[in-house]
Specification:
By secondary structure, this protein is mainly alpha-helical. Helix content is 43%, strand content 7%. It has 18 helices and 10 strands. The longest helix has 26 residues, at 130-155. The relative contact order is 0.13.
Length: 503
């Protein structure tokens, strides 16, 4: 039956659910039902844990459908990276995407499928406490909204599937208009907000009301600029962020500027006061393939053999075993941005040079350093939302509403924490918006925010993305969404290629 279910999943939603039985080590739906899987609240809790596992899975396995544990979607296409000492860089970084080399959306639709199944099956299960049931449903709606928001930012129009496919008759779906996709995202967010039994955090590695509010603010800033939603969306983003503040999110902002960032980003200080939602990793965890779970920082650090002669070897975030790959190094443009203010501690936090006799032999990212056990392991949590980023999102919304003085107030909270001087530039809408964009880069680089930021500020008129990203120079009109993989097109005749690419 497992073999049949895997074959059946390949037919689902343009072939997007390939191997979904294996993804969470599940037996087929028919076997789950007959064996009494969906009987207790513990079944639902275990299944939800598996969905979070899917969100962080597939790093290094693009053929299986990578989800969030990769720089591919939200960093590679930006101006943050240049080729590292090992590589290879992706076609996304070189802006040479085609139907044959594009990533597929399998992982995201696997995640959505399991959210759909959980939301369907949970309705027939009795819970000792209704609040427990509502918590699980709220998290499932939150995760489905996050998955569709990710899909919409990567591919634009995407198929909407809101029910689990439990039989052999599969209704093929076309790509839904963006307005419909975002209508569903907003609906899921509001459903989650209405269901969470607590106003604060129960676990920062799980969905919560503050996490759903952070997602709402992120969505509203996207629709406000990219889809032309304008002032109403910007106001909604500000309101959501203010509600998060009431839940207790705060900056780590002690007198030692450097220590603030080390505490914020340390794998030994996870779920600190600044974190709103993060994706959990731990030492020597393995996935269903038996592969070691590590976060995407492995592509931004180095294997120790590449820097053996470095005078500062002990300070470098390297692994002795061949786990860190140095696919990317920080771009010169990023380095120049980080060095703009001498007292800004983020330069040291983000970038580190391997030095041999005064010469730089390698440069890599230093932001996520993992933990050292018998060797270094990248067990850092993926920070999805934190208060520093949300303050800058609020500054962006205020600037978009042409309230520059208020925007600068929020901007300066981040600059002060970093040791950078207060903003002293022009107080025009355009100037403050550009300052916010630059500050988000300094603050959030390598946190999977730069490419969406560039797209958003491009549509908002602050920048021309084709001038901002070196690999887009001279490519005016090159699509900002990803192409659909050829296998998806082959499996579903209703799917059309993303505008700007050839089928």
């Amino acid at each position: 039956m497992k073999t049949y279910y895997k074959l059946f999943c390949m037919l689902m939603l343009t072939g997007a659910l390939t191997g979904c039985a294996d993804k969470l080590d599940l037996v087929p739906v028919s076997d789950i039902t007959s064996s009494g899987f969906w009987n207790t609240e513990d079944d639902c809790k275990a299944y939800l844990t598996g969905i979070y596992d899917q969100l962080r899975d597939n790093y290094g396995h693009d053929d299986d459908g990578t989800t969030y544990n990769t720089t591919l979607y939200f960093e590679d296409r930006s101006d943050s990276f240049q080729p590292g000492d090992i590589g290879p860089v992706t076609e996304a970084w070189s802006q040479s995407l085609t139907a044959s080399n594009a990533p597929d959306w399998n992982g995201w639709y696997n995640l959505i499928y399991h959210c759909n199944l959980l939301l369907t099956e949970i309705e027939g299960i009795s819970f000792r406490e209704e609040a427990e049931k509502n918590q699980i449903k709220a998290e499932a709606h939150f995760l489905r909204a996050f998955a569709y928001f990710s899909l919409a930012r990567i591919w634009g129009e995407v198929p909407l599937e809101l029910e689990p496919i439990l039989g052999p008759d599969v209704e093929l779906k076309a790509r839904a208009p963006l307005e419909e996709v975002f209508g569903q995202i907003n609906q899921d967010i509001e459903q989650s907000l209405g269901l969470f039994p607590e106003s604060g955090f129960s676990d920062k590695n799980r969905g919560s009301r503050p996490a759903a509010l952070a997602l709402k603010a992120d969505v509203k800033m996207w629709t406000g600029k990219v889809l032309g939603g304008g002032s109403a969306d910007f106001e909604a983003a500000i309101q959501a962020i203010d509600e998060i503040a009431a839940a207790g999110a705060t900056l780590l902002d002690g007198p030692d500027k450097l220590a603030n960032y080390r505490d914020l980003l340390s794998s030994g200080n996870k779920k600190n006061e600044e974190i709103v939602f993060s994706i959990f990793f731990d030492y020597q965890e393995t996935n269903y393939r038996g592969d070691l779970y590590q976060m995407y920082a492995t592509t931004l650090a180095s294997w120790g053999i590449n820097v053996q002669g470095a005078d500062n070897y002990d300070e470098l975030p390297v692994t002795e075993a061949n786990r860190a790959r140095a696919v990317y190094a920080p771009s010169e443009k990023l380095r120049n941005m980080l060095e703009e203010y001498p007292a800004d501690v983020r330069d040291e936090i983000v970038i580190i040079d391997a030095i041999d006799g005064g010469d730089t032999i390698l440069t890599c990212f230093n932001k996520f350093r993992g933990s050292v056990y018998d060797d270094r392991y990248f067990d850092d949590d993926i920070i999805v939302y934190r208060w520093g980023g949300l303050l800058l999102l609020k500054a962006e919304a205020l600037a978009a509403l042409n309230r520059p003085a208020e925007a600068v107030t929020e901007l300066n909270k981040i600059r002060s924490r970093a040791g950078a001087p207060a903003y002293s530039g022009a107080m025009t809408k355009a100037a403050v918006e550009k300052a916010v964009l630059d500050e988000r880069w300094r603050e959030l680089v390598a946190e999977l925010k730069r490419w969406p930021d560039l797209v958003r500020f491009h549509h908002g008129g602050t920048i021309n993305i084709y001038e901002e990203v070196p690999n887009l120079n001279g490519k005016s009109g090159y699509p900002l969404y990803f192409p659909v993989h050829q296998s998806v097109l082959d499996n579903n005749e209703l799917i059309t290629q993303t505008d700007g690419y050839i089928d």
